[in-house]
Amino acid sequence: MLYDVVIIGAGPAGLSAGLYAARARLNTLIIEKDVAGGQIVTTEEVANYPGSIENATGPSLVARMVEQAESFGAKRTTDTIKSVDFSGKIKVLKGEKADYETKTVIIATGATPKKIGCPGEKELTGRGVSYCATCDGAFFEDLEVFVVGGGDAAVEEAMFLTKFARKVTIIHRRDSLRAAKSIQEKAFANEKIHFMWDTVITELRGDELLESMVVKNLKTGEEKEIFADENDGTFGVFVFVGYDPATQLFEGIINMEKGYIITDDKMATNIPGVFAAGDNRVKPLRQVVTATSDGAIAATQAEKYIEENIFE
Questions:
Q1: Active site includes 118?
Q2: 273-292 pLDDT tens trace
Q3: Which region is the signal sequence (predicted)?
């Protein structure tokens, strides 16, 4: 089958693109390697998305987006794309389950959480180390947790974790937060939230569970080991230090900047018929609202591209 549009990724950008493309009566397929929603499904509260005044959660917002895209005829499938051929007018995507031919492609692969990069992190992921407060916060009921990072996401997730943990300490490599002032004010006013400034984690230790961590003060050079309370036996480390764009598949094919796809204001890449939308492209703000906007623009431009070109 030859599709009009194949969208890689079913986060807000991909679902928005699917909605607009299908509504334009384009034969639309959304391919997602995992569950729909991308990063937003790990978000407890989406307070800054216009119209979400009824305390919408990430999962509830995604569920609506999926339903809306499918109601207009967008098809969805689960597959992992292993390689692409963008050399011809018809684009070919080779997946683990099938190959897909399409007139246009919208890359909406998003980004993945960055790691601390210290010894023990990989081994203890899921055993005390997490990148998703919504997913794992409840496991740390009445325990102590540490949040690594100083941006909006780190501070917001730290506040969310106070619902479960008895104490939340934000570890930041600088001496001040980067989060928005309104978010900082809420954090400083929360009695459960504490701060460890100018500090990084250099090692995470434990056998079956996270039992201790080594931290280093960047100003003094002093290192110390912090142990779990002996009555608890473990504690949590939640990492929110940014994201890496999921664009490795397109390296050497599409123009990028530090791993992010370069597009114009029409979401077009350097390859005709290939567009990008969402957190994987070069942009000043990566939020749900900008992802959905990108998806809408990409889909309407894909429609225009199809109208202006002849496909045999």
A1: no
A2: 999 999 999 998 888 899 99
A3: none
